Structures are given as C-alpha cells and as structure tokens.
C-alpha cells in the first residue's frame, strides 16, 4: 500500500525518505509493511486505507480488546460443621479462645467452655422448617483426629 505523510512540514515532501520515494507527500510505489511501520515511527503518516502503520498503534490495537466479564461466580464454600468431639478437642488444645474463634462468625458468645460448645452446635443446626424448600448444602463435618 502507498504511504501518505501527515506530519506538518512533510505533507508535500518530494524525494527519498527511508528508502521510499515520495512525491507531494505520497509514496510513488507500494511500500512493504515493515517500511511503513519504520516511517510511521519517525513521522506521522497513514496508509491509503487511513490506518496508522506504526508499531505503537499495532500494540494498541492488539491490546485494545474488550474484556469479557463473566457472570458465573464461584460456588459458596460449604459451611464447616464441628462435632462435639472436635469442639472439645479444640477446647483442650486452645482453650476458650479457640472456641471463640469458631463462635464469632456464628454470633455465639458464652463465658464457659461447655456453654460455648452447646451454643456453637445449636448455631450450626439449620433452622427447622416443616417442609424445606430446597436441599441444604452439604456441610463438612470436622471430627477429632485419629491417634
């Protein structure tokens, strides 16, 4: 394709520039893509079809794709359910502080270990309804580690 010079002061250039012959700012013969890109990095120019042949424009064009935003979300993690034995083991290892770490997200508070274990177990139970509308999500049950 032919190259047209657009840089102010070069619009009417006649002569050899970068190995390409110009007459009144338009190349005489078709220029190779590499030559057009090289000239476009020096002076402002365009191809006959109006496109910018510079390497920077090519980079912008290749990166200018619209990002697709998916509506699919990762499934919510299954709630962790602790067994009484697991809670007692945590109480033995970390004390009431370890149980409070489990009870805080469940909005469970108590001053004694036994009360806190009972309240955590109760808070983990799904609300009882006569006919559940949907199946509850499968919960992971944490049991004490085998010795």
What do you see in this structure?
The chain has 147 residues and is of the alpha+beta class. The chain contains 5 helices and 7 strands; from the N terminus they run ββββαβαβαααβ. The strands form 3 sheets. A 3-stranded antiparallel beta sheet has the order 2-3-4, with no helix packed on it. The chain has a two-stranded antiparallel ribbon with strand order 1-5. A hairpin with a 2-residue loop joins β3 and β4.
Task: Please sum up the structure shown.
The protein has 147 residues and is an alpha+beta fold.
Q: How much helix, percentage-wise, in residues?
A: 25-40%
Structural class: alpha+beta
Task: Work out the number of β strands.
Answer: 7
Sketch the major β-sheet: 3 strands, antiparallel
In oligomeric terms, what are we looking at? single chain
Low-confidence spans: none
Strand order of the largest sheet: 2-3-4
Helix segment tally: 5
Radius of gyration equals: 36 Å
Question: What is the average per-residue confidence, as pLDDT, rounded to a whole number?
Answer: 82
Topology:
Blueprint (H helix, E strand, L loop, with lengths): L2 E3 L9 E3 L2 E4 L2 E2 L5 H8 L4 E3 L7 H9 L16 E3 L1 H11 L1 H8 L9 H12 L15 E3 L5
Parallel strand pairs: 6-7
Antiparallel strand pairs: 1-5, 2-3, 3-4
Helix pairs in contact: 3-4, 3-5, 4-5
